[in-house]
Amino acid sequence: MIAVGLLCADINAHAATTTTYQANGASAMTFACVNNCSSQIYLTLNSSQNGGATSWTVLFGVFGSDSSGNSTSISGFGNIPSSMVSGNGNNNLMLNLDTNAAGLQVQYCVTDQNFNTTCAPYSGGVISVNWNTSNMFTNHIVQQDDNTLGPLKVHTNLQSDLSSATAQSNAFGTQFSDAFAQLGTAHQGSITITKP
């Protein structure tokens, strides 16, 4: 009986996929909330230079709750077309992300009061962010950490020089304003994302 249970667990197990992105160019981050933090956004945008070409990687989570009071998350990551990013990356940067056009796999997860989480593909939509430096502070950051973003496990190994910035966002129809965003440059870093 025990052997059958273990066999079924192995058959139903899904292999996790791990993807690593390089970050050695423009880097921006916003983390903001509205309505007493009942809705939140976390988003990073990083570029990488390789042979004169620039590639862009986005990682995001939009958090809230459903009509039953369950916690929800919409998360996604991946390379996006350069045409979805504009600005100089020094004192301003704009993201106009269409997750469908970018081909990102986006997941919608619900966690009930018993901490049971179910996830399904999400139809996606538009996230726009506009960063502008505010010259309140600058940071040299040496970062090595592990975080969970919805169903995603994120390992960051990064050195960056960032300036304070403001960020105005619209994520799937919800407006966010972040007075403590950051914009600057990442140096020879990497972000590894594991998706269940």
Task: Break the fold down into its secondary structure elements and pairings.
Blueprint: H1 2-12, E1 17-23, E2 26-34, E3 39-50, E4 53-65, E5 71-80, E6 85-86, E7 92-98, H2 99-102, E8 107-111, E9 117-121, E10 126-149, E11 152-171, E12 174-195
Antiparallel strand pairs: 1-12, 2-3, 2-12, 3-4, 4-5, 5-8, 6-7, 7-10, 8-9, 10-11, 11-12
Description:
The chain is mainly beta and 196 residues long. It has one domain (15-195). Helices cover 8% and strands 69% of the residues. The chain has two helices and twelve strands; from the N terminus they run H-E-E-E-E-E-E-E-H-E-E-E-E-E. Strands 1, 2, 3, 4, 5, 6, 7, 8, 9, 10, 11 and 12 form a twelve-stranded antiparallel β-sheet that branches. It is globular and about 45 Å long. Mean pLDDT is 90; it is low at 1-13.
- Note the run of SSEs as H and E: HEEEEEEEHEEEEE
Number of helices, where a helix is a run of at least 4 consecutive DSSP H or I residues: 2
Distance between the termini: 28 Å
Q: How does the major sheet shape up?
A: 12 strands, antiparallel
Low-pLDDT residue intervals, each spanning 5 or more residues: 1-13
Mean pLDDT over all positions: 90
Instruction: Look at the helices and sheets and give the structural class.
Output: mainly beta
Helix content, binned percent = under 10%
Give the CA-based shape: globular
The tally of domains stands at 1
Number of strands: 12
* Radius of gyration from CA coordinates: 18 Å
Strand content: over 45%
